[in-house]
């Protein structure tokens, strides 16, 4: 399977899911992967509405990127073995990006592969992690450095779950929506994103219309290039520097950034680089910076830490021959892939971000 053909958004959420499970997995053994949040806020309602899941085995892990490790995977594989999971079993990933990424990875490796379904409960997972087919875990806080490509049997999205989230988590997902609006202009998403009222931002960014447009953009790109040989690299805009900030915050500070918060920083820095190297005009650069700066809190970084950030970037899995590889944009909706940027200019982009947040 090279793309997700079955993405269900709202509508008769529980009926659609129950019908799908009854049609394809009625005689399968069910396992549901949750964290301490979804086991309380999402799982009870899920089981109540779908009797088929009454006897499902529940696997609970701690939330957070720091728990997306091989050690956690081993514990779950051991549990699956103890529960006599076979190759007809199915794993249902009920949670955010960590659950989607790691749950899919666990399913694909266990007994050379069991099937899995994603039920994303965060905005980030609904528009990004649950639908991309990228699965993996972190080692030494390096993001998804061990992983593979594989797609779920289906994705079931219930935007009602977003009501259980704090504002910080919702804004984390919004960063990916901003990214989509900057790399693809087919859905007119940039205009919609810029029309969002800061006063009503949480209501606006969880509108089903915005989520659907974001998913449509990502699924279109992934379906054409499922294993990131070429076109799919456009999805990395903001992520080379963003992942470095995320890794740095996890390994060197107590102020851990959420994925989207780090991507927001990356979008500013890489928009600056786009202005220097890809022809992004000053007007659009200023609009991007103004939008992101108005939504996200400042993250202060000391110049003495620039070398650490650069070292993290050199370990980015997208790099080839030790060159730090970027996706940039020449204008709104016009991405350019495979841009190798010298370290001195990357440092300039970090200084640019520093000057903005002063």
> How far apart, in Å, are the first and last alpha carbons?
48 Å
Radius of gyration: 20 Å
CATH class of the largest domain: Mainly Alpha
- The percent of residues in helical segments reads 40-55%
Average per-residue pLDDT, rounded, comes to 94
Q: Any idea of the CATH topology of the largest domain?
A: Dehydroquinate synthase-like, alpha domain
Strand content: 15-25%
The secondary structure category is: alpha/beta
Helix and strand pattern: EHEHHEHEHEHEEEHHHHHHHHEEH
- So, CATH architecture of the largest domain? Up-down Bundle
Find the count of extended strands (DSSP E, 2+ residues): 10
Number of helices: 15
Largest sheet entry:
4 strands, parallel
Principal-axes geometry comes out as globular
Number of domains: 2
Contiguous uncertain segments of 5+ residues: none
CATH superfamily of the largest domain: Dehydroquinate synthase-like - alpha domain
Query: Looking across the biggest beta sheet, what order are the strands in?
Result: 3-2-4-5
What does this structure look like?
The protein has 358 residues and is of the alpha/beta class. The protein has a four-stranded parallel sheet. The mean pLDDT is 94. The radius of gyration is 20 Å and the shape is globular. Strand 6 and strand 7 form a beta hairpin. Helices cover 48% and strands 16% of the residues.
Q: How are the elements arranged and paired?
A:
Layout: E1 7-9, H1 13-25, E2 30-35, H2 38-41, H3 43-49, E3 57-61, H4 70-82, E4 90-95, H5 97-109, E5 115-120, H6 123-129, E6 134-139, E7 142-149, E8 155-157, H7 167-183, H8 189-194, H9 201-205, H10 208-224, H11 239-252, H12 259-277, H13 282-295, H14 306-314, E9 325-331, E10 334-340, H15 343-357
Parallel strand pairs: 1-8, 2-3, 2-4, 4-5
Antiparallel strand pairs: 6-7, 9-10
Helix pairs in contact: 5-6, 6-7, 6-10, 7-10, 7-12, 11-12, 11-14, 12-13, 12-15
């Amino acid at each position: 399977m090279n793309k997700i053909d079955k993405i269900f958004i709202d509508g008769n959420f529980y009926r659609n899911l129950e019908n799908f499970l009854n049609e394809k997995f009625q005689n399968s053994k069910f396992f549901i992967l949750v964290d301490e949040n979804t086991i309380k806020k999402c799982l009870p309602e899920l089981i109540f509405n779908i009797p088929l899941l009454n006897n499902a085995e529940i696997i609970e892990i701690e939330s957070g990127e720091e728990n997306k490790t091989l050690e956690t995977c081993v514990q779950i594989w051991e549990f699956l073995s103890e529960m006599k999971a076979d190759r007809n079993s199915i794993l249902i990933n009920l949670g955010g990006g960590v659950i989607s990424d790691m749950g899919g990875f666990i399913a694909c490796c266990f007994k050379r592969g069991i099937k899995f379904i994603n039920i994303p409960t965060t905005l980030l997972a609904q528009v990004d992690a649950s639908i991309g087919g990228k699965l993996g875990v972190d080692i030494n806080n390096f993001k998804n450095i061990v992983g593979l490509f594989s797609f779920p049997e289906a994705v079931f999205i219930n935007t009602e779950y977003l009501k259980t989230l704090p504002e910080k988590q919702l804004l984390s997902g919004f960063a990916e929506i901003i990214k989509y609006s900057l790399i693809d202009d087919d859905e007119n998403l940039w205009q919609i994103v810029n029309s969002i009222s800061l006063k009503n931002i949480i209501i606006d960014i969880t509108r089903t219309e915005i989520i659907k447009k974001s998913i449509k953009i990502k699924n279109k790109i992934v379906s054409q290039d499922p294993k990131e040989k070429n076109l799919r690299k456009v999805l990395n805009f903001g992520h080379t520097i963003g992942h470095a900030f995320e890794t740095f915050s996890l390994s060197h500070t107590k102020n851990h950034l959420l994925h989207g918060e780090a991507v927001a920083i990356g979008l500013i820095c890489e928009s600056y680089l786009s202005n220097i190297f890809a022809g992004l005009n000053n007007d659009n650069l200023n609009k991007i910076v103004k939008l992101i700066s108005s939504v996200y809190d400042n993250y202060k970084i000391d110049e003495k830490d620039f070398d650490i950030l650069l070292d993290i970037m050199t370990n980015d899995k997208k790099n080839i021959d030790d060159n730090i590889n970027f996706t940039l944009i020449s204008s709104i909706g016009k991405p350019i892939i495979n841009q190798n940027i010298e370290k001195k200019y990357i440092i300039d982009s970090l200084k640019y971000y520093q000057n903005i947040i002063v």
